[in-house]
Amino acid sequence: MMKSSEVEHDIQTELEVLKIGTGCRFLTSLRAYKETPENYIIVMDYMAGGDLHDLITEWMPFDMQTTRYISYDHIL
C-alpha cells in the first residue's frame, strides 16, 4: 500500500498541531513519531475525559468564569 500525498499532508498537519499545542494542559502531547514504508506511528499522551467538543455539547451554555478559563488556556 502506497502512501498518498493527501495522507502525508494530513499527517504533517497533525504533527504541526501537536507541536503547537505542546505545554497546553488541555491538549495531548506528541511523544514520538516514526514513519515506515506502510505506516505512520504517532505516540501521544493519553488524556482521559473526552475533548473540548464533548465538553461543549454536554455543558453548554458555559457560565462566564468557565468561558474565561477555557479561552485563556487555549489562547496562551
Report the order of strands and helices.
HEEHH
Helical fraction equals 40-55%
Largest sheet: 2 strands, antiparallel
Structural class determined from secondary elements:
alpha+beta
Q: In order across it, which strands form the biggest sheet?
A: 1-2
- Say how many strands there are: 2
Question: Please, what is the average pLDDT?
Answer: 81
The structural domain count equals 2
State the helix count.
3
Rg:
16 Å
Distance between the termini: 40 Å
Cα shape? elongated
Q: How big a fraction of the residues is strand?
A: 5-15%
Low-confidence stretches: none
InterPro entries: Kinase-like_dom_sf
Organism: Engystomops pustulosus (Tungara frog)
Protein name: Protein kinase domain-containing protein
Summarize the entry for a quick read.
With 76 residues, the protein is α+β, with helices and mostly antiparallel strands.
List keywords for this structure.
elongated; Protein kinase domain-containing protein; 76 residues; alpha+beta; single chain
Protein described:
- The protein is α+β, with helices and mostly antiparallel strands and 76 residues long.
- It has 2 domains: 45 residues, no CATH class; 28 residues, no CATH class.
- Helix content is 47%, strand content 14%.
- A two-stranded antiparallel ribbon has the order 1-2.
- The longest helix has 16 residues.
- The protein is elongated, with a radius of gyration of 16 Å.
- The N and C termini lie far apart (40 Å).
